[in-house]
Amino acid sequence: MQTWLVTGAGGFLGRNAGAFLHSRTQAIGQVRTPATSGLYKQLLPVDLRDTEAIGALIRSTAPDVVLHAAAISGHEQADADHEQAEAVNIHATAEIARACADMGTRLVYISTDSVFSGSTGNYSEEDPPEPFSWYGESKLIGEDFVRELVANHLVVRTNFFGWSDTGRKSVLEFFVHSLRAQQHVRGYPDFVVTSIYAQQLIEAIWRLTELGATGTFHLASSDARSKYEFGMSVAEHFGLDSSLIAREGPPADAHTTSRARNLSLNTAKAAAVLGSPLPTQAEGIRQSVSDEAELAPLIRA
Fold this sequence. Notes:
The chain contains eleven helices and 14 strands. It is of the alpha/beta class. The protein has one domain (3-166, 194-224, 263-281): 3-Layer(aba) Sandwich (Rossmann fold). The strands form four sheets. The chain has a seven-stranded parallel sheet with strand order 3-2-1-4-5-6-11, sandwiched between helices. Strands 12-9-14 form a three-stranded mixed sheet. A two-stranded parallel ribbon has the order 7-10. The protein starts with a strand and ends with a helix.
């Protein structure tokens, strides 16, 4: 059984990764502060801003695979603290890549659709990146370090939804909890993505790793939807009142970074390697319905 080390094991994607990996691997996790979790064999407290410590962690644990899921991921958060985003998204990534190269460890780096501008959509792996925020720019620099420093790598550009520890970290949870509370919400019609259910994302990463694939892949849903269309699909599959969703954009002062973008990713390359299309967003929402009773409490624990 392989050993996988997951950075950001206490975060949204890290917890989802632990839920998928814990019965398939010897899964260990990096967290910023001491914690416990039934999803991982052990959690090791290392601050990613301490590059020497994160490199030492990889060299001492010698994992077969590092899933680098940790990031300063919010556009506004990264813009508000450039130094922290640089430390985590760039410097820590570079040191993780160096350590993986030293140990012969496979590195899976979670990047983002925000390396693109969102002016056109349907971006392939060959399209030139054009980040619109410091978050996207810092993740793109991280990509470059991964490609430069470690041969056995996957750079995974994605956008995902699912169940989180707080119940407030994904667009799925936003619509489910708001509509269950009979709250009126906005569904942005001009913000388009190919968001994939987090468990399906980890499964696709697992399959690519089993196949020995390397390079840059877009792992996302096979169809593009606006936030409004996504919300309507959530209402349909969860049996909620779709009339509570207004087809309108955010208030003028809601975000410092514009959400009027088409950040959809073309997944043809990944589909060709995997031998089947990536799931649709509706398929991901359907799986999230069936996962709510058992998976969601496991992730929150």
